Amino acid sequence: PTLPISSHKDITKNVARILRLESTAEDILTSLASTSTSSTVFKDFTTAFRSAIDPLPENVVGFKSIAAYRSGLNIVPSSDFASVSRVVAKLVEEIRGKKEGWRLVEKEVVDYVVCVGVEVAGKWGVPVQVHTGVGDKDLDLLQANPLLLRNLLNHPISAKTKIVLLHVYPYAREAGYLASVYDQVYVDFGEADLILSSDGKAPFLQVLMASFTKFWLKKFGLAHID
């Protein structure tokens, strides 16, 4: 069973929450399917989504995106809200009858959600974790290459936001390269080759390790550090 955050405080000192951007958007869209009209649905969605992440909810210290699983990492910041609006209206119509068992995979909406998340994260000085590389069988690995993030990384909305590339394997070199040319990019080697820093040329201070406690060394080593 899923335990509340408070229950972990008996085990470790520092407990906080990472908010998933796509899941938050899905919850809002599901709710709007019952309450919103076609003419106002995009405005209702954008207002509700921003309100859900700005200001930061209690105990939230960062955001996470799994766009790699949904529509890929070629996230393109855009001001073409008319296109996003049309897709949102159509999507809400489609989920009105089911409300469960659906996933947000529409690229226009996923891109919008991630870009707003990156913008808000920069405003509040918190990082955005991005799933890259290896994953479950429903992941298109070609669309999980962190190099696809360059459109986002080159855009001003990401200039002040720390972007943490999670997992990265088998794209350790690509992720390391991004960290070497973008000051705001950090690389996780929790599931990648431990020689990432030398292989990918990532600056040492921009190399991190995720604490999935997947292996015994991590489980006991990190517990000891804490």
Structure notes:
By secondary structure, this protein is of the alpha/beta class. 41% of the residues lie in helices and 12% in strands. It contains 9 helices and 6 strands, in the order βααβαααβαβαβαβα. A 6-stranded parallel sheet has the order 1-2-3-4-5-6. Helix 1 crosses helix 2 and helix 2 crosses helix 4. It starts with 16 loop residues before the first strand and ends with a helix. The mean pLDDT is 86.
Question: Rough shape?
Answer: globular
The rounded distance between the terminal residues' Cα atoms is 24 Å
- Determine the fraction of residues in helical runs and give it as a percent range: 40-55%
Q: How many strand segments?
A: 6
Oligomer: single chain
| Derived structural class | alpha/beta
The unreliable regions are none
Task: Average the pLDDT over all residues and give the rounded result.
Answer: 86
Query: Helix tally?
Result: 9
Strand order of the largest sheet: 1-2-3-4-5-6
Largest sheet: 6 strands, parallel
Q: What's the alpha carbon Rg, rounded to whole Å?
A: 18 Å
Question: Element order, helices and strands?
Answer: EHHEHHHEHEHEHEH
Range of strand content: 5-15%
What's the quick description here?
This protein has 226 residues and is α/β, with parallel strands linked by helices.
Question: Topology of this protein?
Answer:
Elements lengths: L16 E4 H15 L5 H13 L6 E6 L1 H4 L10 H15 L11 H18 L3 E5 L17 H4 L9 E5 L4 H10 L3 E4 L7 H4 L7 E2 L7 H10 L1
Parallel strand pairs: 1-2, 2-3, 3-4, 4-5, 5-6
Helix pairs in contact: 1-2, 1-4, 2-4
